[in-house]
Every structure is written in structure tokens, then in C-alpha cells.
């Protein structure tokens, strides 16, 4: 009988490199290593692939999922102005379902029964992986060697040295970092003392906003809530995010320092940098202000928040998230036009809007002569609109509860 197979989400780092042999020893299975490129940059992914094979994987491959990530994960997040606790643009939360999708695909291709990831038992990512994996492949098992097979850091270093694995064991980054094209998350180390300010070395996507270069003016064109061009140049979603990362990053936009509520009940200190995401969300929100009808816009704020919570909580493939997507998409029909922003000194400030599908009516809004708003109607409107408040105030008066 042939051996069982495990597909491992492989990053190229120490833990997942050791996990290849470790899973083999602990479970008797063959390991297929899958690295998913979501624009994390850093090492050449072919080098990572070779390392996986060098560490004993029977197969290893790299999936270039950058355009897919930008188009099918970051763009829906932008349409929903996706921010957890109003501040975190869901960087890691967005990539996990996509990575999961590719893991399940690999499991099918290579006839694996189990999918493995390198998360610990304390974070959100383990939940996101496993809930996503079993949402797409309900028959698959999940294992997490660091959490379930006692692969601690000391064990990992010892194992790598003993087996002369082609991986560095001496360099230890003081932080736990996860990054992709939508942003970068930095945690642990001295940041765990929530009084400690982040130091310069924490940041990589952004320059110090205290010493910005000259202001940078940018025009972003949207079609149905999705950015399609920058300064008149048509670009793909991935290219737009990359260009905005570069330009907003140079101005130190999108640095976030927050204590957030993890799904597993822990409050944790996180530093994020998401220059492109933060600038794009600011532009998108303003275009919505001009184009989305008032009641729809008010209700959408609640939907946006719920959407972000679901995605944060690992429910990307859930029925409710799908229903909310349908609502969000419907609201984006008229979100077309161009937003002009000035990027400078850590801030992306909108200075102009242009749209032919907006609801802003100059002639209604103007205080100049010739406006089309009939002010005589306001009197009657307020009379009736204020009637319930007036009636109940009179009743309070009668019962001695007046102001
Ligand atoms: N706390 C963030 C989240 O749950 C970031 C997690 C990043 N993961 C990491 N290994 N640093 O989305």
C-alpha cells in the first residue's frame, strides 16, 4: 500500500522546513510542500522550492497567486472598505483563504488526505486555514505540527542541525512577520510590552512619515468600486496595489499600531503597514460618499464592519460572507469616477472627486443664486419629521418628566 500524503503550506522558513521531515517521522506520510506567492516578496520562490525538496519533500511547487489574490481577495476587501476594529485592513486574514484554496487543489492533485500548516495554537491563522480548508474540502484532515506534533523552536533547530537541512538556524528574527501585497503584519518580541513604541527596524513597506519627500498628487479611477487606472494609466488590480504601496509607502502612509481582539480570546499587540490599502480605502470611501444613496450608504457601514469581522474570524467561505458580498457588489454599481488625493507626511487626503454616476447635484447644493432646491418645502418637512419628538416631549411634560 502506498504511503499517505500530506500537503504542507510551506513558507521556506525554519519551522515549515523542519515540519517536512517531522511530519514524515511522526505520521509516516509523504509530504508535498506548497508555497503560495501572494506578493510577499523576499526570497526567490524557486529557491524556496528547492529547499523544500532538500528538506525531504517528495514534491514541491510554487503557485503564483498574486493576480488572483489582488483581484479576488483584495478587491472585495476594498469594496467593503474592509477594516477590522476600524483600523486593520485584514492583510493576513485575506491571504489565508486563498492559500487554503491552493492547498486543497494540491491535495486533490497529489491524492493527499491531510493538509498541514505551520501556525501555533494561539492565533487566528490556524482557524482561518482549517475552517477554509474544510469548507472547500470537507473530507480533508488538518494538522499543525507546531501545535499538534510538538514541534517547538528548540526541537526545530536541533532537528535542522542534526539532519543538515539546507536552512539557516542561527538567524532569529525578533518578530513574527506575515506579509503580502495588501500589507505587512509584525508581532511578538519587545512589541509584546504594549508600552514599547515600535522601533524603525519594524517597518519595511513604509518610510518614516516624519521626514516625507515632497507631496505626491495621485488620481485614482474606479469602475464599480474597483480601481482601474492611476493618473490615467490603466493598470491591473495587482499593479494598482503595487504602485500605491510604493507611492503611499514613500510618504509613510498606513502605519498602524493596535491592540486587537483575536478570535481565540487573546488581546494582542500588532503593528501593521499597509500603505496602498489604506490610501485605496480612503479614496474608495470618498467615491462612495458621492455615489451611494444615503440609506444604502448608512446601512453599508454596518455590513462593511460585519464583513470585516467575518473575514477576520476565518469565515471567508461562509454563507453569510457570501450574502454580504452580494449586497456589497450591488452597492458598487454606480461607484465610478476619479478621486484625486495628496499623499504626504503619513496621510492620504482627498482633494477632488469626479464622477458621471454620482448623486451630488451642484444646483441642489449651491448657496449661490439660481439653486434648484425649494427651501419653502423644508418648513413642512421639519414639522412632520419632528412630530414624534414633539409629541413625546409634551407627554413627558404632563407626567412631570420634562427637561
Ligand atoms: N493578528 C493578525 C491577524 O490575525 C496578523 C497575523 C499575522 N501572522 C503572523 N504570523 N505574524 O490577522
At a glance:
With 403 residues, the protein is of the alpha/beta class. The protein is built from 14 helices and 14 strands. Strand 11 (255-261) and strand 12 form a beta hairpin.
Q: Approximately how much helix is present in the residues? A: 40-55%
Strand proportion, as a percent range, falls in: 15-25%
Q: Distance between termini?
A: 84 Å
Structural class: alpha/beta
What's the average pLDDT? Answer: 96
CATH level 3 topology of the largest domain: Rossmann fold
Give the strand order of the largest sheet, numbering strands 1, 2, ... along the chain.
3-2-1-4-5
Shape: elongated
- Taking all Cα atoms into account, the compactness measure Rg is 25 Å
Total domain units: 2
SS elements, strand count: 14
How many helices? The count is 14
How would you sum up the major sheet?
5 strands, parallel
CATH architecture of the largest domain: 3-Layer(aba) Sandwich
Level-1 CATH class name of the largest domain: Alpha Beta
Task: Provide the CATH superfamily of the largest domain.
Answer: HUPs
Low-pLDDT residue intervals, each spanning 5 or more residues? none
Order of helices and strands: EHEHEHHEHEHHEEEEEHEEHHHEEHHH
Q: Which ligands appear in the coordinates?
A: arginine
